[in-house]
Design brief:
0% strand; 70 residues; 3 helices; mainly alpha; elongated
Length: 70
């Protein structure tokens, strides 16, 4: 629970452009992890859930427009 709040505080400090870049980077990472899982390479499946949560948090902040720096 502590980690989620830490990420959320970190995400709130990002500008809109930085948040959009972070979403793109996380989506790319998610694709690569899914490929690794499908090809049965060493990868932790719990990371998928973590990345999806981070993407959802970023989208929520973006939708609500809660950024300190425009």
């Amino acid at each position: 629970m502590q980690k989620k709040h830490k990420n959320l505080k970190e995400f709130k400090q990002l500008t809109k452009e930085e948040r959009e870049e972070r979403i793109i980077d996380l989506k790319k990472e998610l694709i690569f992890i899914n490929i690794k899982l499908k090809t049965k390479q060493n990868s932790s499946s719990h990371i998928v859930r973590k990345i999806k949560t981070q993407i959802a948090q970023l989208y929520t902040l973006q939708t609500l427009g809660l950024n300190n720096k425009n």
